[in-house]
Structures are given as C-alpha cells and as structure tokens.
Fold this sequence. Notes:
The structure holds two protein chains of two kinds.
Chain A: H1 3-7, H2 15-41, H3 46-54, H4 56-89, H5 95-101, H6 104-107, H7 110-120, H8 126-133, H9 142-167, H10 170-178, H11 183-212, H12 218-221, H13 232-241, H14 247-280
Helix pairs in contact in A: 2-14, 4-9, 4-11, 9-11, 10-11, 11-14, 13-14
Chain B: H1 2-5, H2 11-40, H3 44-52, H4 54-87, H5 93-100, H6 102-105, H7 108-119, H8 126-136, H9 146-156, H10 160-172, H11 175-182, H12 187-216, H13 219-224, H14 234-244, H15 247-282
Helix pairs in contact in B: 2-15, 3-15, 4-9, 4-10, 4-12, 4-14, 7-9, 10-12, 11-12, 12-15, 14-15
Amino acid sequence: MSRKARKGKSVLPGFGLTMGITVAMLSVLVLIPLASVLVYAFHMSWKEFLELMMRPNVRQAFVTSVSCAFVAAVLNCVFGLVLAWVLVRYEFPGKRLMDGMIELPFALPTAVAGITLSKMYSDEGILGRLLGYIGIKASYTKTGLTIALVFIGIPFVVRALQPVLEKLPGTYEEASTMLGASRSYTFRRVILPELMPALLTGFGLALARGIGEYGSVIYISGNSAKEGTQVVSYIIMQKLNSGNVDYEGAAAIALVLLLVSFFLLFLINMIQIAAGRRTKQ
Amino acid sequence: MEKHNNSEGKFVPYLLIGISVLFFLVMLVFPLAEVIYRSLKDGIEVYKSALAASNTLSALWVTLIATVIALVVNTFFGLCASWLLTKFEFRGKQVLSTLIDIPFSISPVIAGLAFIMTFGRVGWAKPIIDWFNGVFGTDISFVFSVPGVVLATIFVTFPFVSRELLPVMQAQGSAEEEAAAMMGARGFVIFRRVTFPHIKWALLYGMILCAARAFGEFGAVYAVSKARGKTFTLPLEIDALYMAGSSDSITQAFAVSSLLVLMAIIMLVLKQIVEYRGKVMEE
C-alpha cells in the first residue's frame, strides 16, 4: 500500500471516533490515576523525600529488587535461549506439551505460584531438602526470591526468541560451516548477533516484570528487613496496610520505582538500537 | 531439521534437550504437582469443604465479575486502539502506542496505589464522588469495594488485547478496507466483513491472555480490597488462608489454588487451540 494514500486524508472512516475512545479510555483508566501518584508524591518536601529514600530498609529494598530481577533476567536469557533453541530446532517426544506449558507462569496466578514455590523450597519441601544437601537455603533468602523471578520471567525470553529463531535462514550457518568455522564459533558470531535484539527485548520485559513483582515473591522471600529480602513492592504495600498508613511515602517510593523501571527500559532500547545499527553495517 | 545436527555431533542436542527437560520439570511441572498434592493431602472431604466455604464462593464470584468486565472493556479498547493505530497516520502515534503499553512495565502494586490516590480518602476525586452520591442518593465507591477491584483489574490487563491485534493488523495493511470504503461500504460493515475475519484468531488470543491475567491478578487488587468475603478475589482468599498459618488453612489455601490451576490450564489449552487454528488459517 502506498504511503501517500495513508498520509493524506484516509478514505477509511472512524478516525475521530476511535481517537476519541482510545484517548478517553486511556486517560480515565490509566493516565489520570497514574498522574495522581505523581501529584501525591510531590506533596513531600525534598528533605522528607531524601530522608525517606535514605532509610536503610527502603534503600535495601531497591537494591534487592533491582539486583535479584537482574540476576533472574540473566538466568532467563541463558535458559530461555536453550529452551527456545530446543523447541525450534529439535524433535523429541513431549515437545508440544513443553511448548504449550512454557506460558504457564503467565496463566498461573502469582499468589498460587508464590505459595507453591515457597512450600517447595522450604526445609520440608522436596526441592528445599535437595538444595539443603548441597548447603543452599532457598526459602526466605534472596536465592528463593530469584528463583521465583526466574519462574515469572522465563516465558518472556522464550516467546521473544522463538519467532526469530524460526525465521533465521539456515544459509548463514551453512555458509559459516562450509567456510570452516566451528559450531561454537558459528553460534557466537553468526547466530547470536541475529538473536540479540529479541534476546534484549525478552531480557527487558523479564527485568521490568521482576522489579515490580509482588505476588510470587512475597511468600518465598520472607520479607525480612534484616536479611534484606524485602522488595520495593512490599515496602509500598506495607505503607498502605500498616496501622499508620503513609500514603505520601508510598507514592514517593512508587514514583522512584517507576523512574527506575523506565530508565532501565530506556537503556535497553538504546542498546537495542545500537546493536541493530551494528548488524546492519 | 536433520541438516542442523550434522556438524555438532550427537552430544550437543542431547545435552540441550536434557537441560530443557530438567528446567521444564523442576520449574513448571513440579509446582503444579505440588499444588495438587498439598490440596489433597488431608483427603477429599477437606478439599470439598474448602471449595464450598462461603468466603471461597464469594471470592469466586468477585473474580468472575472482575474478569468478565475487564475482558469486555479491554477488548473494546483493543479494537478501537488498533484500528486507530494501524489505519491512520497522525502525529503522536508512537507516543500513544507507548502510553498504552505502560501497564505492562509497572508494578501492579503501583496500579492499586494509583486508584487509592485518585478515589481514596486522600484522592482528589473523592469530593466529586461524595457530591455525586449526595445528589443522587447512591453509595458508589471506587476503592475498597468491588468497583475498585474491577478498575485495578482493568488497569493491569489494559494493553493485552491491543498488543495482540496491532502486529496482525499492521501486517494486513488497509488496502482491502480502502477498496471496500471506495465501493461505498459503511464503517462498521467494513470492520465486520473485511477486517474481522483476518483478526479473529489474534483477537481471541489476546482475550485469553487478558482473562488469564485478570483472574490471577494479586498485587493491584490487594491494594484496593480489604474485606474478606465481600471484595476478595480468589488470589486474595488464597493469601488470607495461607497467611492464617495453621496447617488446615494452608491445605485450604492449596485447595482453592487448585481451582485457579485448573482455570490456568484451561486457558493454556484454549490458547494452544487458537494458536493452531490461527496458523492453519494463515496457510
């Protein structure tokens, strides 16, 4: 379809109507409520704000949320790459079941995942005991928190990679192999660069989800300030629930969490653009 | 597929399949088995009574209401937004599509907080609602009530349908619709007869993802729902049972969880069917 036809006045009807509905619904249901958080966060003075952010438990929560989400997203990239590769390239019994179940973490409510993982990795749980033998304690530690985030994030990476792997032409690999490159060299220098944008997308989505995650992590993490296993979402919720409700504090921490998430997504976008430019050369 | 395996020997494929299967079993299959095992641990009677408890039934009802409303609202929005974003060129299009995706990348807890800050005791919209209730003698409230739960659910699932529709409609282009318009077809007829057949599987797919997230939402709903047996959804009821801490109530929590596991599996099967039908139609 020519670009010209679309640039001018479109012959298709419904521009005004759909524009009105889209903007109105987006504003009422998402943007205005979110803006209220911003407005509310600014009720605080700078001094109060800084004092709140410097509190050890708040600072610790940010460090925990970001670092655990980061480690989980990296692990997801590794396992996601293997899973996507296996699902696209190999045939084996049970493959379709595995393919269908990859999205279980999307469909399974986070609270269910949370209590289940917490019990499984506890000292009486089957995996908790197994890990206990090799001296790893999962429940109520950052290890457990990270495991929950790996569970939540894995479909993002697999689903981002699969379509790209399916479309990847075999000719590049064949050419590389015929020119005498080893399999691992071909993978690193030919296949991986092609997958990089999709891998980064999956990484970014898993990271963003992990930083804000609440339901699946609060049971397994134990939420102990001393152990540093409180996440930011938990701190916000605590300010809404505890005896003396602190709306301003909750809004201010939420604002910083929003900024951190957007900054990381922006950063990943930049890396993606740079990576795209490099492969095009 | 054989040709790919030539140069890497037999070892690598087996290793990779082995890692995948192990990951799959430990991370995805074990948890499901764990839910079933723990829910039936104390016998079928305990299981049945947990599901028949009045709190569970009330939670099931609230969950269904919130899911259905979120599904309807977001499907309607998804169709409007993707028509707008794929059929027309205008300034700020990129910004608009980025804004629609916001709920994807923020913490659900912030979504709940947003409604408290808008409609809650401290919210700026509170006087407006009070005035409305005073004039019309109603008792509407958007936080700590079922409408609040519905709003929070809509928020977190907002972009699900539009996100699935956009790429399909983008790839389809608008040539067919333009031809229909030239021949004098009206707007809704064009949509129903020309566009809809192309997008129906993507639409269903988006709706399934939306429903799956809606009935399982926890963080956002938790912030705006405080009354057990009245405004609790199933995930909140599970949390309350689990946090009660006694061995009985934990078993009950897993029994209620098994209900959600069942719903999740139904969603996955539906999704698989829709994906398959969509692929068949494409070919």
